[in-house]
Amino acid sequence: MPSSRSVVALDPARSVVEQLRERVAAMEHKPAAQPVATLPGLASLVPLHAGATYAVDSASLALALAAGASQAGEWVGFAGCADFGVEAAAELGIELSRTVLVPDPGEHWLEVTAALVDVLRVVVLRPPASVDERTASVLDSRLRTRSAVLVVHGQWPRADARVSVEESVWTGPGSGAGQLQERRARVVVRRGARPPQRAELTWPGVHRVDQPVRGLRTTSGSDDVRVRVG
Questions:
Q1: Lowest mean pLDDT among 168-177, 189-198, 215-224
Q2: 179 with 151: CB under 8 angstroms?
Q3: Residue 211, helix vs strand vs coil
Q4: CA–CA distance from 166 to each of 80, 100, 151, 179, 225 (Å)?
Q5: Cα–Cα distance between 181 and 162 in angstroms, integer?
Q6: Residue 165: closest CA among 225, 83, 79
Q7: Measuring CA to CA, which residue among 34, 54, 51 is closest to residue 42?
Q8: 23-60 burial by CB neighbour count: b if 16+ within 10 A, else e?
Q9: What's the CA gap between 14 and 20, in Å, rounded?
Q10: CB of 228 within 8 A of CB of 173?
Q11: What is the pLDDT of residues 41-62, one digit of tens each?
Q12: CA–CA distance, 198 with 201 (Å, rounded to integer)
């Protein structure tokens, strides 16, 4: 569900940064764990909550987890995502005019991410190196205070849920050369000691499917998958 902040448009005559800073005060008083808008295809599998961190193993999953909030009118950001796909983001419904991109924050990635968390609803981070518990705790505290969501493309020691692609396939034209049409993937969500939860999704749009995807090869979490023609 969109939050009350979502429906308030920014004043084009005023500084965007100034208006986002004004929203920080309101975010500080939002309770942690409140629902954050999620794409319908993911809502029952991995619903987002303010103050939480979600780890993913592919760029497509990172975009999908940010798309619901963006569609609901929230601002989202991407840090360390040098290969950010503008077309893929737009296809999922991410509103680029409400998206902040810092493709290469360098050695100051932690400070940059914390600054984005201060003013944005969902922040996607691709850390440049492994992250220890102490570093993660800095952002954990910030997320709860600002009622934001962090999506990490990579490993993270304090993730509330870990979402990964187990199997994936693309379908294309009936014969010969042509454009890829649809991706189907089996996604697994792990939360602590709970049993893993699995679902099969299709891209673009990210919808759940009832029929199992058969004959797929196991992937290592990247977006490189086998192509099936026909």
A1: 215-224
A2: no
A3: coil
A4: 24, 30, 19, 24, 11
A5: 27
A6: 225
A7: 54
A8: beeebeebeeeeebbbbebbeebbebbbbbbbbbbbbb
A9: 11
A10: no
A11: 899 899 999 999 999 999 999 9
A12: 10
Q: Is the pLDDT of residue 194 over 60?
A: yes
Contact of 131 with 158, CB cutoff 8 Å: no
Question: Who's near 57: CB < 8 A, 6+ residues apart?
Answer: 153, 154, 163, 164, 165, 221, 222
In terms of residues, how long is the chain? 230
Smallest CA-to-CA distance from 65 within 193, 151, 141 is with 151
Q: With beta carbons less than 8 A apart as the criterion, state whether 54 and 149 touch.
A: yes
Please report which helix (H) or strand (E) contains residue 124, including its range: strand 122-125
| pTM, full prediction | 0.76
Q: In one letter, which amino acid is 66?
A: A
Q: Which two tokens stand for residue 189?
A: 């969500």
How far, in Å, are 12, 101, 124, 171, 207 from residue 77 at the CA level?
A: 19, 6, 6, 30, 23
